[in-house]
Design goal:
Order of helices and strands: HHHHHHHH
Shape: elongated
Radius of gyration: 18 Å
Number of strands: 0
Strand content: under 5%
Largest sheet: none
Amino acid sequence: MSRSSPLRVGVGGPVGSGKTALLDALCKRLRDDFEIAVVTNDIIAAQRYLAQAGQQLAANPEPSLLYSVGKYHYRTGDLDAAKASFGQVPEGTDEHIKAQYFIGVTDVRAERLNEALTVFLGVSTKVKGLESATNEVLEVGDLAHLARARIYYEQGEFERAIDAYNSVRTQ
């Protein structure tokens, strides 16, 4: 399995058969090694998990959980809550770089392009300034360059778009 192809697992069964308990156990077992997303039609279960995450964050603001809650809000369209969660991810963590990138993406979705440019430039600068970084963080830096290039292109700033595009690492 490559990083670009997610593993998809389907869990089905009648009401009360233990689907939620199985997913809960799987997520707890795998959360330290993988970025996990659960798609459910059970909005009550989703809200229950979000409430549990909120309680856990109140006791221990874990960066990966803050990031995950931000992504949940982003995917459900609550951009303000997403931005607030992403903004709480502490600096010095890989999740901080990813969260900052998603703040920029949130700004793009809200049509705040100048704010997004500022955020993406900050992400690019932070990644460039790291002495060592995981491949995932380097990829986020490249995505920030591409996002800047696209915004500059849309704004008719073609030279800046080319410069941002040329900042993407080559393999």
